[in-house]
Structures are given as C-alpha cells and as structure tokens.
Amino acid sequence: MEAYQQRVINEKAALDGSIERLGLFIRSDHFGKLPKDEQERMERQHATMVVYSAIFGERIAAWGTAIYDH
Fold first, then answer.
1. In a domain, 69, yes or no
2. pLDDT of residue 7
3. Across the chain, which distance is largest between two alpha carbons, in Å?
C-alpha cells in the first residue's frame, strides 16, 4: 500500500468518527436548544461530511480495481 493510500484511509476513519459524534449530538436534547440557524449549519456540516466520506470510500474501493504502475 502506498503512503498516500494509508493517509486517505486514516483520514476517512477520523472523518467517520467525527460524523458519528456530530450525528449523536444532533440527536441529543442539547441540539434542540441551539438557535435554529446553528442547527441548520450543523445539519449541513453533517451532510457534507457524509458526502466527503463517501468520496473517500469510492477512492479506496477504486484501488482494488485500478492498475498502478509503481
């Protein structure tokens, strides 16, 4: 495995942890006490992070089918 591939895997794992923690917070009682505009920003942040993680997942999956001349 190339060093950059390990970095992508590590970054996806860290991002997935952040997604999980933010999702838990969004589902908490405390979230509902925040101003609506902050709730909306956090929900958009969460959705964007999910998309970003999916892109990492696509990249990682492609390594199994891509041909590298290294």
1. no
2. 96
3. 54
